[in-house]
Specification:
Order of helices and strands of chain B: EEEHEEHEHHHHEHEHEEH
Strand order of the largest sheet of chain A: 1-2
Number of domains of chain A: 2
Number of strands of chain A: 2
Low-confidence stretches of chain A: 1-8
CATH topology of chain B: Rossmann fold
Structural class of chain B: alpha/beta
Structural class of chain A: mainly alpha
Low-confidence stretches of chain B: 221-230
Shape of chain A: flat
Strand order of the largest sheet of chain B: 6-7-8-3-9-10
Mean pLDDT of chain A: 87
Largest sheet of chain B: 6 strands, mixed
Largest sheet of chain A: 2 strands, antiparallel
Number of strands of chain B: 10
Radius of gyration of chain B: 17 Å
Order of helices and strands of chain A: HHHEEHHHHH
Strand content of chain A: under 5%
Radius of gyration of chain A: 23 Å
CATH superfamily of chain B: P-loop containing nucleotide triphosphate hydrolases
Number of helices of chain B: 9
Oligomer: heterodimer
Chain lengths: 248, 230
């Protein structure tokens, strides 16, 4: 699970989840639309500040950014090959253009800014709160339920997988590259699917027995307070400032 | 004798394609009664409980609960509130991240305000001896704790009847005793499915077995009961 982890009681951790989701969405849209390096540098600086305020662990942030930037490296190597322009250097018939490098840099800056913002705003939230925030913001209930149940049951399925896998190993199963291995892993996957489906049905039955009618109610009703309004205003101001910079 | 809380007449049920598990079950649960239900694996004990709360539809027979005949899905909404079914596996029953949210789930569905739901949940946790468990993570609980929290999630709905499916399955002696003590202290009428006569005997007012898809009085020793109800 990538997006869940830092549960904090920092300043950001106390902001209403709905406000945080909206701020993250707004920020991402603005950043994706911006093309100037100055603007993106400002956006990056703002997100780093945000991450510090949200007390995102350095290790966690670096791990995430490393994963992202390995992918960005691929973009930086491949994109300049396909975008025509002034060649910077070439190997045989392959030539890398400066316009392509420029473009790859933009994409990397955007991706990093958005990743840091998501880590600071959303990863500091309990999954259940993210679910309720999405539901309050008009996200279809079905999608929200999928998210919440995934969070709850991914561990159960994982344990079930290990139980089956251990049982296989105890009977001398060692994966090799042959038909027997492929077939056995196929059975394992199939069995996991069947069991998950059956568990899903039992959970549904248990919920029906407790009066479930397709809607979740929250035990801690969310209330917007002054701090939330302040944070929303600050986010809107930052977005407006970035847009203004872009249009200068 | 007052009217039965749950009454089954000639209930039949088969799993597709043609595995018949219930072949004409007659049964009535009176107020204050605690009925133990024994029988080998797969003989239809769980099926019977699921039929009582309308999760499964019988292929024949009539079902009445709390003074009314119950046939359609809508009839069972009230039945499920008044007859609380505790599932065998805690992981099926508990799906919220924290214990308090899970126990409050039923009351919230019954249109209680969050404040009332929290109060009921806290009180119910105290009733089953799990004070201070409110913020614990459900899937990290031990087997015995899961069972007690599952029971609490049902008790929080204030049912008139408890249907318990193997409440001591896979529990150690200490946890079994704890579950037994909690159940003994409850006022509700109960149907308890279990393999353990030692657990049922001090707790129940009568014990029934299943034989040939029907309910029969069961008073034999555990070993004899096992060989007869095949």
């Amino acid at each position: 699970m990538i997006i869940f982890g830092t549960l904090g009681r920092s300043f950001i951790g106390r902001i209403d989840p709905r406000v945080r989701v909206l701020a993250a969405v707004l920020f991402s849209i603005v950043v994706v639309l911006c093309r100037g390096y100055g603007v993106l540098a400002t956006a990056l600086a703002a997100t780093v500040l945000l991450a510090v305020v949200a007390r995102v662990g350095a290790g966690q942030a670096l791990r995430r950014l490393t994963e992202l930037n390995v992918f960005m490296l691929l973009v930086a190597v491949s994109l300049p090959l396909f975008i025509p322009g002034t060649p910077v250097f070439h190997i045989g018939a392959l030539s890398w253009s400066s316009e392509g490098l420029w473009r790859a840099g933009l994409i990397a800056a955007r991706a990093n800014a958005i990743m840091i913002a998501m880590t600071a705003l959303l990863a500091t939230m309990e999954p259940a709160h993210l679910g309720f925030a999405l539901s309050h913001l008009g996200c279809p209930d079905k999608l929200v339920h999928v998210l919440l149940f995934m969070v709850r049951y991914v561990e159960v399925v994982h344990v079930e997988y290990h139980r089956l896998r251990d049982a296989m190993r105890l009977r001398g199963f060692r994966p090799r590259f042959n038909r027997h291995t492929l077939r056995s892993l196929g059975y394992l996957t199939g069995m996991l699917l069947v069991r998950s489906l059956e568990r899903g049905e039992r959970i549904m039955q248990a919920m029906k027995c407790r009066g479930f009618r397709g809607r979740f109610y929250v035990l801690d009703p969310l209330k917007i307070c002054g701090r939330d309004v302040g944070f929303a205003a600050a986010s809107a101001a930052l977005a407006a400032f970035l847009v203004w910079m872009e249009w200068q | 004798m007052s009217e039965a809380l749950i009454r089954l007449e000639g209930i039949e049920f088969s799993y597709p394609p043609d595995r018949e598990v219930l072949a004409g079950v007659d049964f009535a649960l009176s107020p204050g009664e605690r009925v133990g239900l024994v029988g080998p694996n797969g003989c239809g004990k769980t099926t019977l409980l699921h039929i009582m709360v309308g999760l499964l539809k019988p292929t024949a027979g009539t079902l009445g609960a709390f003074g009314k005949p119950r046939r359609e899905e809508a009839d069972f909404h009230e039945v499920r509130r008044r007859a609380g079914l505790v599932f065998q596996d805690g992981d099926d029953q508990l799906f919220c991240p924290t214990v308090i949210e899970d126990v409050a789930f039923g009351p919230l569905n019954l249109d209680k305000s969050p404040r009332e739901a929290r109060a009921v949940a806290t009180e119910t946790l105290r009733l089953v001896g799990l004070e201070g468990f409110e913020e614990r993570i459900t899937y990290k609980l031990s087997g015995g704790e899961k069972r007690l929290v599952s029971l609490a999630t049902i008790l929080a709905m204030k049912p008139d009847v408890l249907l318990l499916d193997e409440p001591t399955g896979a529990l150690d002696e200490a946890s079994k005793q704890r579950v037994g003590e909690v159940l003994r202290g409850l006022p509700q009428a109960m149907i308890i499915v279990s393999h353990e006569r030692g657990f049922l005997e001090p707790l129940t007012t009568r014990i029934l077995g299943m034989s040939g898809g029907k309910l029969v009085a069961n008073s034999q020793s555990p070993i004899a009961a096992r060989s007869i109800s095949r």
